[in-house]
Amino acid sequence: MTASFSAAYRLDGANVTLVVEVIAGTPAVRYWGPRLPDDLALEELSALAARAEANASPAIEAPLAVTPQAGQGFPGRPGLAAHRGVGGRGGLDWASFALLVEVEQHADRLVFISRDDAHSIELVHELKISGDVLAARTGLVNRSVEALQVDHLAAPVIPLPGFVGQIIGFEGRWSGEFQLQRHQLSMGTWLRENRRGRTSHDAFPGLLACERDTNETRGLAYGFHLGWSGNHRLAVETLADGRRSVSMEALYLPGEITLAPSEGMETPTIYATVADDGLGAVSRQFHAYLRARFEHRRLRAKPRPVHYNSWEAVYFDHDTAKLMALAERAASVGVERFVLDDGWFGSRRSDRAGLGDWQVSPAVYPDGLGPLIGKVRSLGMEFGLWVEPEMVNPDSDLFRAHPEWVLGTPPAPQIPFRHQLVLDFGRAEVRERMYCDVAALLEEYPISYLKWDMNRDLSQPGGADGRAGATAHVNGLYEVLDRLRAAFPAVEIESCASGGGRADFGVLARTDRVWTSDSNDALDRLSIQRGFSYFFPAELMGAHVGPTRCHITGRILSMPLRVAAALFGHMGIEADLGELDAQETSDLAAGVALHKAHRDLIHSGALHRIDAAQGVNAFAVVAEDGSEALVSYTMIEEQRGYFAEPLRLAGLDPAAEYQLSVVWPPRLKAEWPLKDGGRFRGAALMQAGFQPPRLHPGTALILHLTR
Ligand code: GLA
After folding, report:
1. Using a 6 Å cutoff on CB, does residue 452 contact ligand 1?
2. What is the pLDDT, as a whole number, of residue 3?
3. Maximum distance among all alpha carbons in the chain?
4. Is the N-terminal amide bond of 411 cis, ω within 30° of 0?
5. How far apart are CA 531 and CA 215, in angstroms?
6. What is the CATH number of the domain that holds 623?
7. Among the four 76, 431, 549, 598, which has the fewest Cβ within 10 Å?
8. Using one digit for the tens of pLDDT, what is the confidence trace for 354-406?
9. Does the beta carbon of 399 lie inside 6 Å of ligand 1?
10. Domain residue limits at 696
11. What is the count of structural domains for the chain?
């Protein structure tokens, strides 16, 4: 088939440009980077990139297409690995050779349709720029009368320039999510696979790429993220010919994806952005993108209510009188939404039983949840409820009735994991049951918020038909969440998976915030939240003031520090308020009031992480119009010298004069010439910076600047 096209297509954001060139009949990203001049002739880019034949190499380089193809002789990782069988044996049609047949150019979107008639497949690539974020997906259609077995299919593959030699990946663990790790690239592949079945604590599906000297404010920086809540594979490949690329895909277990005749599929979306002024700009562009999404805008109709969560105060020991007393204390320190965590239903008196039985426990709540909810609402708070619908304890009525509903790989015994098993959301009857159980609660009670939890890996995700069902589970989860959203649009949903094990743009298309981490240790939280902030804005980041002695790390941290860490997210409290002394209680109330006074700024402003000295955590949130800013400065460790380094701010209006005031902690003991404020020019604050006071480790300072 012959088709004629332009040589290249271009999309622009305010600060970014994408150029897709048709190379050897396939669409390939020629340029993805900071914005190019509008009148640039696109042929210049291919002329600049042209190279001669290398020694002992193919005479013509196979293109690094959006789907690099085996049938084109691409020497690296193909974007598609699929085959089909005839007469019981697979392996046919494996070397895809799809060529472009149609292009749609819209103002913000490009669609490339490629066909491979010899192997009966069609590829569809959709690339769309909103704001400064590229969102791209690959579609695959089986055009044969035989089924097509898909081993992997990458979202559109995006090249990185050879001089972008460093990547920053994210690693972590339960209660220690979103930790940055730098890697120097060399020839070969940096590969990150997640087989936990949920987004995971240890292999967040995102990475940053940059030049050696890139920091928060300077240098070329790229961000990539796969919006998918299941198994995934991230690869950054450097070929010996110097070409380098980022590829992201859902990871399919053997045989998981089979396309029937005429059936199609789509990859999860890869989100990408790029800036030439540092990693901070990459984050702000991701934040702006999420903030502009419909799902997010609906949230902003009202300020994010301050939460109280019952978990660390009562765990499974529910008692209406105690909870009502907590609700009273919560309301008195300024809480606006009371969330009843695990332990209210079925036989759930510990984590060993009851999951799956989503009926209010008559033993614990003889009159249902009505009295508690009535009390909460009479105190002027909304009510939220914890659920974990994807899971079942073997000791539950649901499991006794439907032992066949769980994922597993019999006869192998299931790896024990918090005494619970995963319900197979790939099965329609399971989805229906869980939808109905949750919907019944939302219909019966005035519940404004669901904390949707998910507390184990899909370790052996075999489905009912004996095939792997991890991908079907995630799609099933999305379907149930979408259905709940459609039926109960006013109910907000939190994505929790033992803390931050399910944070991604996919789940966030159907949920309203993430429980960032089970760790409420304020010092650990600062680094977890900093990592989280590379992709997600503050209003999506659940952040709670924990008990005096952190239940997870055992560390005792002051209330002013705990407040200072939680204040910069979607703030909440998760501690037994009866255990706080009078000083802590009044500091907490002051902290909640401070958050409320500034939450519009925190939840809409531009985040500027600051590259501060070792042992210091600092960032600023600056109003869109530069009119005000909040600066957070925390001393984590003792400094070597007598004084800490000056702190240079970022994002201010350089010409404007700002009035500086110390708004936190409530009692700053340190001697400090700036304690009583002063007026300073933005340029001076950004270029010279200010001398911070001498602070004990574990002390946080919050400054407010107004123009
Ligand atoms: C998970 C969550 C916690 C809490 C418990 C309840 O660990 O991350 O916040 O809800 O489950 O069992």
Report:
1. no
2. 65
3. 84
4. yes
5. 14
6. 2.60.40.1180
7. 549
8. 999 999 999 999 999 999 999 999 999 999 999 999 999 999 999 999 999 99
9. no
10. 610-706
11. 2
Return all residues near 278 (Cβ < 8 A) that are at least 6 apart: 214, 215, 216, 217, 218, 219, 221
Ranges of residues in the chain with a pLDDT under 50 are 1-2
pLDDT recorded at residue 621: 98
Cis? peptide before 665, omega within 30° of 0 = yes
- Nearest ligand 1 atom to alpha carbon 351: 12
> What is the pLDDT, as a whole number, of residue 5?
85
With respect to residue 354, please indicate whether it lies within any of the assigned structural domains. Answer: no
Of 228, 261, 292, the one marking the end of a domain is 292
Asked, for residue 393, whether it belongs to a domain, the answer is no
Question: Looking at residue 299, what is its pLDDT?
Answer: 78
How is residue 72 annotated by DSSP?
Answer: G
Q: Could you tell me how far CA 614 lies from the centroid of its own chain?
A: 26
In this prediction the pTM is: 0.98
Q: Whose CA is nearest to atom 7 of ligand 1?
A: 498
Distance 543 CA to ligand 1 centre (A): 14
Our answer on whether the CB atom of 142 is closer than 6 Å to any ligand 1 atom is no
Q: CATH number of the domain at 142, please.
A: 2.70.98.60
- 341 touches ligand 1 (CB under 6 Å): yes
* Among 310, 318, 348, 496, residue to substitute to test ligand 1 (most atoms within 8 Å of Cβ): 496
Tell me, yes or no, whether 38 lies in a domain.
Answer: yes
Give the residue numbers marked as catalytic: 453, 518
Whether 404 maps to a domain, the answer reads no
Give the angle 613-618-620 at the CA atoms, nearest 5°. Answer: 140
